[in-house]
Amino acid sequence: MRHSPRPRRKRLGLIVTGLAAASTFVAVAGVSGSAYSASAATCGTTNVAQGRPSSASSTENGGTPASAAFDGSTSTRWSSAFSDPQWVQVDLGSSQQICKVVLNWETARAQTFKIQVSPDGSSWSDATATLTGVSGTQSLDLTATGRYVRMYGLTRATQYGYSLWEFGVNVVTDTGGGTLPGGGDLGSNVKVFDPSMSSASIQSTLDTIFQQQESNQFGSQRYELLFKPGTYSGLNAQIGFYTSIAGLGQSPDNVTINGDITVDAGWFGGNATQNFWRSAENLAVVPVNGTDRWAVAQAAPFRRIHVRGGLNLAPNGYGWASGGYIADSKIDGTVGPYSQQQWFTRDSQIGGWTNGVWNMVFSGVVGAPAQSFPNPPYTTLPTSPVTREKPYLYVDSGGAYRVFVPSLRTNSSGVTWANGATPGSSIPLSQFYVAKPSDSAATLNQALSQGLNLLFTPGIYHINQTINVTRADTVVLGLGYATLIPDNGVVPMSVADVDGVKIASLLFDAGPVNSPVLLRVGPDGATASHASNPPSIQDVFFRIGGAAAGQATTSLVVNSNNTLIDHIWAWRADHGAGVGWNTNPADTGLIVNGNNVTAYGLFVEHYKKYEVVWNGQGGKTIFLQNEMPYDPPNQSSWMNGSTRGYAAYKVGSNVTSHEAWGLGSYCNFTADPSIVADHAFESPTASGVKFHDLLTVSLGGKGTIAHVINNTGGAAQGTATTPVNVVSYP
Question: Which residue, 175, 271, 446, 675, has fewest beta-carbon neighbours within 10 Å?
């Protein structure tokens, strides 16, 4: 049955911001609520920067070199050119836990500056907020981890340059508790079930959590529901906000639920377009009536699921829906998207597919409908170029927790578990630092510096210094939508230019002070090849505003070559708290500078400038869902030079090789429906730059997109909410 396309309206109705936390939960065996806390550290008194290699952005003359600030003498000094900004840095020789910086200023001091740290001398993160320089000796207590330390001068206090007699660095000499332990309990917000438990007690816990989370769109509660291997019967696991359900088997069929895993939209009057931030993973479900319901929107992945029946992606009554993402899953019956405006399915197997509204994209899906865009609007690629499934938690035969890391695949199709266990490697939980929301960023960096991976348990983490991931093959995995909020405008996470780092299942929520980036993969100018072992970003979501006013210039910057981006939602909020043209500013959702980067399932919405900028060569994107910003107050406030508005997806003018399939962009200029975007996609015209199956839509006639790509394609306009399609470009 095919339903008429309906406009997506996220601002209808009252937004419920959360319910009070339930006072009790049914006790669940196997999970302790205790949290590990590292003991207090001791800050050493030795200046470890003295005599170390140093450099600076400039020097005033040959008599004031950078080394003079690190020679232990207060009669020699470094001074810079007479301009802003300027910096001086020191190489400590190895990664250190930095606890104090001492600056001995000459008269020509900084008016404002920051202390920054780096693992490699290229990728820098703020160890402090912007500080005011103080005449004479200025001692700064801080917690940061890095090999390189620098003073980054923003503005000068005099007409001269920046000048330091000495620049001292002290590091932690005794962590008190010694080496941080790996492993440990998963915390009270992880609920673990086993087949020996009664269905009634399991259902009671599921219901209590769902009652709290059903409409708790911007609340602070987070939950992970884990099922040990075995069979469970008579359950209906309704999944609300910030709730993840997963099996603990090594393969999906190790956990069978005779019942339902349900997402519906009763809380929002049958409108599923706000069913965000929830997930299902790694289990089998046998639906009671033969068809399971998963009516979701963005940031709601459905991974490694075996549905022994059909799958309905629409809410009860069909309503409105705007999702979604499936990967490494097998649906024995038919998938019915019905009112879903767009959907992306990757490396799966389905028994059939009933209809399409605007944009249905299949990559490496056994049983997918044939290529037919735009009527029906199916974009079908027989294989996916290069993939690696997301790491996942499971229990081994002895009952111990481990994290499984699936192997890299090329030209893949179908599920990884079709012929037995998924190929890959297993990491014991003892090689993970099990993080709790009370942990500081310094503790997380200490764990990483020890060689541990990170497992974030459910909760909200305030990050006051950059989490630096510097070791190849590090796994950083979240449970239950663990949420990282940067404090004082720091970059919350940065990844070095190394092989095989895996970042998965995290929500980055911008803080009230602007962060330049929320996640950086590779330093600026990264050059290493990672073709045989790419970094990956999977089910990683970004939010600017909504829960509270937030700011971040760019959500995700990918500098490392060969990176895999597998399902992101970068969202500048259009509803909730702290929302407005100048209240939650954010320029761009995704910038790709690395070469040969492959992206699957990009959802990027409402940024004030370009939503996606792709500067690297050899890039591939399979599926994009975009909405332009709702809230430009007028045309003059949303101009890119003489061009009206900003494209949703821009390929850099120097790019000569790029290919993209199944991209959709919609406008809904609610503040001023007369606004025009000149085009949704912007690209150089070159034989190696190819686009397939593009569309634009004006939602209810609120605004116009004049062309689809460059000056090709007609105008999306008018109240009919009809797509304008371009099958290929150039």
Answer: 175
